[in-house]
Amino acid sequence: MPITLPTGDDHSDLRDAMRDLCSTYDDAYWRRVDDERGYPEEFADALTKGGWLAALVPAEYGGSGLGLTEASIIMEEINRSGGNAGCVHGQMYNMNTILRGGSPEQKKKYLPKIASGEWRLQSMAVTEPTTGTDTTKLKTTAVKKGNDRYVVNGQKVWISRIQHSELMILLARTTPIDQVQRKSDGLSVFIVDVKQALSSGMTIRPIRNMVNHETNEVFFDDLEIPAENLIGEEGRGFKTILAGLNAERVLIAAECIGDGYWFVERAKKYGSERIVFDRPIAKNQGVQFPIARAHVNVSAADLMRFKAAALCDAGEEFGAEANMSKLLAADASFEAANACLQTHGGFGFAADYDVERKFRETRLYQVAPISTNMILAYVAEHVLGMPRSY
Ligand SMILES: Cc1cc2nc3c(=O)[nH]c(=O)nc-3n(C[C@H](O)[C@H](O)[C@H](O)COP(=O)(O)OP(=O)(O)OC[C@H]3O[C@@H](n4cnc5c(N)ncnc54)[C@H](O)[C@@H]3O)c2cc1C
């Protein structure tokens, strides 16, 4: 169901609608899902049925055709309400790879069903255990057999939400690295039918981790993929996949902003109510200043998020701002998390207060989907023009 919004407003209608939806899924809901290490099925269903996850899919394919600004507000509000958009955010941005790199036939085949939620494209498989951030050295291969298929062998790690996806984007090497001019050449992107792959050469092993985040090791043993599932040109996959990653960074930044405001709000409330030495603890500057500073930094990161999203929506280059917003927002949300935990004293560690859960959730974004050091390396090299460090 496409969403219709008034244009040129301050997005209060969008925020109100999201707050209304999120209010059904309260702290107790997210605590229970976290406790059970479960998947928030009801929440994901409600978002899908409301059309929120199809915000970025163009209207001609059944989506809402909204901008990155609106999409980022949707993600922000989920985290600001105390929830965790990490369980669903892939559905919002992974389709970018098809939208930007797919053929007209592929767009027609996949996008309407992704928009309706019939097919979930929550998963993207890039990271590998032996090469990590050095993506172009990845070792998973896709070798063409005849004209009609590729055979995939290799291993991925940290592949999220695959158990809750019908489709997965896969990055694999189609030409050996020693036979290409640039190391980013020779990589290709495929769309994988998860169910079919699980019965013919792909296996998954869940990774228990610090957050309640469904993520997995994935193994490919002679998995055959139809040649028609190649997205974009063979050997140009790195570029195809990169095209969607800047939008992902802005959306993750927005989730961090949502977390940041949640921490500040909770810290302010608890600090103002908790009486020790016969007065609210927030009356002490040693308690209130870290909360105030966190608010300052979250608000500043928020501006960079809106700048990056506005550039994207205007069709301008936004790589630098996307990366900077992700770094600023991840740092600000973790600073806010720390201040909030400290304000709560011992109770910050009690699951019933939700602070420790949100603390774990927001910590992830210093590492994934791109670590802080890699953003600094990007800014140093591409924005400031300093020599390459790797
Ligand atoms: C919960 C979770 C979910 C994830 N989901 C997905 C997913 O769905 N799909 C997917 O493909 N990946 C996913 N990832 C992987 C994630 O993107 C990577 O973990 C991340 O990019 C870092 O890669 P790495 O873990 O291999 O770290 P490494 O590359 O081993 O790096 C380790 C540390 O060293 C630093 N480092 C490395 N090289 C340098 C250098 N030259 N200079 C300075 N610092 C350096 C890094 O910044 C990092 O802090 C997920 C990860 C997690 C934890």
Automatic annotation (TrEMBL):
Residues 123-222 form the Acyl-CoA oxidase/dehydrogenase middle domain. Pfam families: Acyl-CoA_dh_1, Acyl-CoA_dh_M, Acyl-CoA_dh_N. Its cofactor is FAD. Residues 235-382 form the Acyl-CoA dehydrogenase/oxidase C-terminal domain. This is Acyl-CoA dehydrogenase. Belongs to the acyl-CoA dehydrogenase family. Keywords: FAD, Flavoprotein, Oxidoreductase. GO terms for molecular function: acyl-CoA dehydrogenase activity; flavin adenine dinucleotide binding. It comes from the Bacteria. It comes from Phreatobacter aquaticus. Residues 9-118 form the Acyl-CoA dehydrogenase/oxidase N-terminal domain. Gene3D superfamilies: Acyl-CoA dehydrogenase/oxidase, N-terminal domain, Butyryl-CoA Dehydrogenase, subunit A, domain 2, Butyryl-CoA Dehydrogenase, subunit A, domain 3.
